[in-house]
Amino acid sequence: MSSVKVTDLTKDYLIRDGLRRRRMRAVNKVSFELTPGRTVALVGESGSGKSTIAKLLTRLERPTSGTIDVLTDDGARVAGSAYRREVQMVFQDPFASLNPFHSVAHHIARPLRLHKRTQDAASTRSEVLAMLERVNLTPAEEMAERRPHELSGGQRQRVAIARALAPGAQVLIADEPVSMLDVSIRLGVLNLLGRLQRESRLAVLYITHDLATARHFSDDILVLHHGRVVERGPADAVILDPHHDYTKLLALSAPDPNRLGGVVRSTAPDRDAIDDSVCYDHHLGDWVPSGTQEVAA
Amino acid sequence: MARQPVLSVRDLTVIYETEQPVTAVRQASLELGRGEILGLAGESGCGKTTLAYAINRLHQPPARIAGGSVIFHDREGEDIDLLALKDEGLRQFRWSQLSMVFQGAMNSLNPVRTIGYQLDDTLKVHDGSLSRAQRKERAAEVLTRVGVDPVRLRSYPHELSGGMRQRVMIAMAMLLQPQIMIMDEPTTALDVVVQREILREILRLRDELDFAVIFITHDLPLLLEIADRIAVMYQGEIVELGTAQQVHQQAQHPYTRKLLGSFPSLTGSRSDFVRHGSAQERSA
Amino acid sequence: MTTSTPTDPPRPTGASVADSTLIAQESPAAPTAITGPGGPIAGPPPTPPPTPAAVPPAQPRRRGWRSLLPTMTPWLALGLTLVGLITLFGLIGPFLVGDPDTIRDIGLAGPTGENILGTTQTGQDVFSQLAFATRGSLQIGLIVGVLATVLSAFFGIYGAYLGGFADEAFSLLSNVFLVIPGLPLVIVISGFVPPESRGLWTIALVLALTSWAASARVLRAQTLSVRQRDYVSASQLSGERPWRVIVVEILPNLLPVLASQFVYAVIAAILGEAGLSFLGLGASNSSTLGTMLFYAQNGFALPLGAWWWFVPPGLIIALFGMGLSLINFSIDEIIDPRLKNARNARRLARTRKES
Ligand SMILES: Nc1ncnc2c1ncn2[C@@H]1O[C@H](COP(=O)(O)OP(=O)(O)OP(=O)(O)O)[C@@H](O)[C@H]1O
Ligand SMILES: Nc1ncnc2c1ncn2[C@@H]1O[C@H](COP(=O)(O)OP(=O)(O)OP(=O)(O)O)[C@@H](O)[C@H]1O
Ligand SMILES: [Mg+2]
Ligand SMILES: [Mg+2]
What we know:
The complex is a heterotrimer of chains A (297), B (284) and C (355).
Chain A: E1 2-17, E2 20-34, E3 39-44, H1 50-57, E4 65-72, H2 80-86, E5 87-90, H3 104-114, H4 121-134, H5 140-145, H6 153-165, E6 171-175, H7 183-200, E7 203-208, H8 211-217, E8 220-225, E9 228-234, H9 235-240, H10 245-253, E10 278-281, E11 286-289
Parallel strand pairs in A: 3-7, 3-8, 5-6, 6-7, 9-10
Antiparallel strand pairs in A: 1-2, 1-4, 8-9, 10-11
Helix pairs in contact in A: 3-4, 3-6, 6-7
Chain B: E1 5-16, E2 22-33, E3 37-41, H1 48-55, E4 63-73, E5 79-81, H2 87-93, E6 98-101, H3 115-126, H4 132-145, H5 162-174, E7 180-184, H6 192-209, E8 212-217, H7 220-226, E9 229-234, E10 237-243, H8 244-249, H9 254-261, H10 270-281
Helix pairs in contact in B: 3-4, 4-5
Chain C: H1 20-24, H2 74-96, H3 126-162, H4 164-179, H5 182-192, H6 200-209, H7 213-227, H8 230-237, H9 242-278, H10 289-298, H11 307-335, H12 337-354
The complex binds adenosine-5'-triphosphate (2 copies) and magnesium ion (2 copies).
One adenosine-5'-triphosphate sits between chains B (16, 18, 22, 24, 42, 44-50, 62, 103, 218) and C (4, 6-7).
């Protein structure tokens, strides 16, 4: 069982502007905690830094400042290759996240061997099959031998989830795991994630831009805007009783089958007037400052 | 309101000539009016992309158009039979008259070129009359329209977020101000706010330039809001075609009703949703 | 409801969209001779000898490594046969023929029963010379092919994988090598190295150094696009070591490109070496098709009408180059599966029409 404590996470990118390079703050002093058995949803605008946070958590990028600590039950910090075992990720594009060259079995067997979860070929094989059954890819024997192009999008995401869990991950980052899937498949994959999370008491960070699934599949929601957290709190509170202008806009914009020809045509709320520098915290029931004030993204 | 048609598709049939031939599109007929937004909905694998490719004649073997016709009606009242166009005519026609946002387009930008270069290149190929500065200005303009800072012209694709790349692809389709735009799941990586801004932009351009859009998605609620008419596809056939209102209120085909029922409501009860979903976990 | 997903759908880039179908229409047409599904060929393309027999029972899916092999077409078969026969000749020939250096007094005699390709000015047997020269040329081709491929893979793939400064330095280097005019440089270097130390390896090294850069650039672009795929990130974050990520996750997707670059490098090396030797700048103490031509030229074979002296080496170079090119076209089909699909579709349509 591990939890993650993220404190004041900040990431700057350099972008070319004319001949100079200028700093762009993609993530601005973000703090949160992931605890076993709970799902935190990270919602926010495109380009607001959600994937950057995922990359920082999985150590694909280095933070500019701030800390990420993965702590075991007894409070020890996880480091080195154990970190790689502990924190795993499911990617957005099911068509790009599996290597077209390798079989399904390869994708799951590698992390098993790498983290010495299994010792020999036979036990690896049986573990691979067990993993496939866990993610409902049956008949496992046959699925194991398939290559990615022989699977549907939903099936691919299941393989990706199995691969992430194979090293024995306790922390799962899911970066828009269903946004490229058909609606009819989405719920299936999300429910699978929910079940696995309950079974193994995973700590899950669910990144999405879909408020409905964020509300229904997570315990807490963080709303990100321009790299800053602008609203945080229990899922229902954030969605049903939004305080920050951006969250309100987000909730208002969600497509609603009962609202024909509605919002798109109506005038947009003024987005430029949105104030990023404050964050409404539903746990505290009050506004708190958010991000550093000097750099505006 | 009767619109003048800009594209007529009649009984289009597309077959994948594989070991066991698959009829991916069966006798599809639809008419697209000038300035109309036509939504095309349906589950994964029902043939939406195949239909879009065939209309554009972008289909690759093993796909083969087995029958039907696709006629483009020019502003000048001339009819062009797309299926009869020869290579050069087709090349001229594509992108300048009919552009397309490809599904999964966000991963199809060239990784070794900047965004600016790729936009510029498309302009250069299709409109030789523009000067370098004009091209640059135009590229910056379309980028602004989709809400991406023109500073990003100098960025490489991997430096943009997924949603930004998707918007760049939409910008690329708008670049030449075509008369028809086919958008294949163009907003999968976008949040609702940006999605709406883009849709609003499309609607605005539509009013301004009178172009028509075929909008492909499996997000029916979204279509109900933006589309004038909606076509629902099921296993290669168009099973329902009507105004958004009709489809929403009096859907004829059981599949359409099922599709309409499978959307979680944001404010609805939570347990409903999850129970509804667990039945589907296995079937996905 | 089954949701089947096709093979990764073609994802044309914006700029090239308009032209993508045109490409598909330009693949070489398959003559009607072949009807049934062609079997996979044995062994990776550039390696001899051709054994197009042993077709396993028709398999529903071509998996893993096997899917990398090109489909057998008459052109590929011809290419493999040419390359195979010439390689066989180069490998076994030298053991069967007599000493090529034996000087006889029948100078410049035409083909006879004893000397099937006649003799040179000094009475040496052209056929034995040809066998040894073919071996020499193949040796050069192979060495340079391997060296150039390794160099381009290192600078192209490794640089692109590391990214950042290494990538920029490596691409600068390959760009520099790219703009250096190859043959003149080779001539200068070869002229500079004194003949006594100008061995086979020196020449091979020089040729390799001047020919890797173009492929490195191709490989770099390919690597950059593969490297960005999520599966590469996934394997990095499961803790794989960099070399394993490159070898296991990236390289297989580049194999067809590598193979094609290798084949190309072999052709270029054999031709380049022939050119050098013809100018008298080739490897001393070794005999290749180029040196043969050099001596033929020096011995006034052309004005004297001794065609048997210069036609055979020229022909072997030409046929070998042609064979390798044919193989390369087939490899191109794997790199761009659209070419292959186009051909299969045409074939299917045709058989359906006939029946
Ligand atoms: N390697 C990079 N170099 C420069 N800028 C980058 C890089 N990666 C991301 N960025 C920038 O950081 C910002 C945040 O990007 P990020 O991918 O985290 O967004 P996101 O919230 O995941 O958006 P989306 O919903 O569109 O995926 C964007 O402005 C993006 O352009
Ligand atoms: N290259 C191909 N070869 C063989 N069959 C194919 C090929 N491409 C698509 N198909 C089949 O054609 C049918 C329609 O596919 P298409 O891609 O048009 O579906 P779609 O409606 O766009 O689905 P999605 O929502 O997943 O994009 C599917 O059953 C698919 O398996
Ligand atoms: Mg993202
Ligand atoms: Mg599609």
